[in-house]
Amino acid sequence: MRFEGHIWKDGKYWLVEIPVLDAMTQGRSRNEAFEMAADLVETLVDVEGFTVQVYPLPQDRFELASNNCRLMVALMLKRQRQRHGLSLAQVARKLKASSRNSYARYEQGGVMPTVEKLAELLSAVSDTDLVIRQSEAN
Questions:
Q1: Which residue, 31, 44, 80, 112, has fewest beta-carbon neighbours within 10 Å?
Q2: Is residue 1 helix, strand or coil?
């Protein structure tokens, strides 16, 4: 799974945005900005051994992949929930779950949702369409 991002130059800095994670960072060069993007996601996940790779694309775009899709999905769900100001209990109610723990296990990375379940979870935590790409380079 890969998440798409955007990079552009603003004055003397290169800015990097990862919309699905509601995250931004910057660097003095394009390469440093990519390094900062990887470091940002690794820091947000904060699990030993978790690494992120950046794949530059044409037209000021790039993709992020990691060595652990489950943790990337967990981070995405958490960031989207926080972005939309929802509590775990509110998301659980939207999913018609009996407890917030049924949703929290996905957000904590304990369980990897199926594609269908991921769509349901994203619908519960956000009101926007998010671009997620399946890739063999996980």
A1: 31
A2: coil
pLDDT in tens, 52-82: 999 999 999 999 999 999 999 999 999 999 9
Q: Domain 69-130 adopts which CATH fold?
A: 434 Repressor (Amino-terminal Domain) (1.10.260)
Provide the 8-state DSSP code for 17. E
Q: Which of 15-29, 41-55, 85-99, 122-136 has the lowest mean pLDDT?
A: 122-136
Average pLDDT, the chain: 88
The domain made up of 2-66 is a member of CATH 3.30.160: yes
